[in-house]
Amino acid sequence: MADQFTETVTTGWGKRIMNSFMGVLIGILLFFFSFVVLWKTEGRTNYAKIAGKAVALSTQSVDQNGQDQLVSATGPLETPDSVGDPEFIRPGSYIMLQRTVEMFAWRERSSSKSDKKMGGSETTTTTYTYEKEWTSNPENSAEFKKPEGHGNPGLNVAEKEFYAARANLGAYELDVQNMQLPDAPKLEIGQNDLSSNLTAGFKLAQGYLFKGTGTLSEPEVGDVRVSFGAIASGKKVTVFGKLIGGAIEPYLIKGDTKFYRALAGTRDEAIAQLKAEYKMTGWIGRIIGFLMMWIGMLMLLGPLHTVLDVLPFLGTASRFVVGLMTFPIALVLSLVTIIVSMIAHNIIVLMIVLALVIGGILFLLRKKKQPVAQAAAQ
């Protein structure tokens, strides 16, 4: 049987009306900030376009043609150094080593169901469910609705990343600590990989370093497991940055946005990944902006719905009707904002649109003057 706790709260009609006016303020903020989100979404940096203009370098020797320019270089990312985790993993041939720490802990989840009563009051039943799971961010059990029997201890092992002090791609030096690197694949660790100064209490179990009163297959609350991701020296990548001397360093876009990144694969594969990321973040931003606008509009009419809740079926009907009416309005406003933002952030398209608008105005003015001139001539 699930570990649950249920709480029932009844809110009177008058208090609900007051609360709905607070919702109006939130709705106004959501509505206006939705335009900001949509505008900034269309104005974000398209790294794929920028990367496509990078000067491709040969990695055999330092290419002087790319000095002080945005460049790309493809080849194995290597280091002469050994990188390890002093507390867990002995040094090895890694560009980066990433420590992930998880604790078996309680989590609280809640679900609510509201029932509106005749006269405008509302009864809300909230069910809190408590489950145990492995997590990198254990919840503060003191803030649980029912902390008794669901206590989480503190996590005293921190997540960390370790980088090679020196790295290169062919003839070029790189600063991997300040570079955005590809995702680190999971490192399969064995007994020979363990540090001679292994933190007390940890032991190797099923690819993890485990510490606790239970086992990895049957853990207890408070048990900890540590795993690692690693980018091995020799991984083929394409690096984008600014060539200065014999080093590829961060490239600044418009003086403030840093572009200094290594992506797995060839130059074409790297640009394709950047293009996919740009499209995905664009759709996410547009959907979030639209939802903010629509929800904001719904909240603006919250007091009306709450007043009509004196007869629950009227409040339900009003929410349905208003939802149907505001959906297309929010959709049209979002589309207009997106189109205007696209035009405003593309200087070429903006100049074309302005030229068409000015040309249209001049044409209309000329057409308007023709009848006046003809009348004067008669």
What features would you describe in this structure?
This protein has six helices and 18 strands. The chain folds into two domains: 14-43 and 284-377, no CATH class; 48-265, no CATH class. The strands form four sheets. Strands 1, 6, 7, 8, 11, 12 and 13 form a seven-stranded antiparallel β-sheet that branches. Strands 3-9-10-15-14 form a five-stranded mixed β-barrel. The termini are far apart. 37% of the residues lie in helices and 30% in strands. The mean pLDDT is 91. It is α+β, with helices and mostly antiparallel strands and 378 residues long.
Brief summary:
Helices cover 37% and strands 30% of the residues.
Helical coverage, percent range = 25-40%
**Integer tally of domains:** 2
Task: Catalogue the unreliable spans.
Answer: none
Query: What is the N-to-C order of secondary-structure elements (H for helix, E for strand)?
Result: EHHEEEEEEEEEEEEEEEEEHHHH
Average residue pLDDT: 91
**Continuous helix count:** 6
Q: Report strand %.
A: 25-35%
Major beta-sheet overview: 7 strands, antiparallel
Category by helix and strand content: alpha+beta
**How many strands appear in the DSSP assignment?**
18
Report the radius of gyration as a whole number of Å: 30 Å
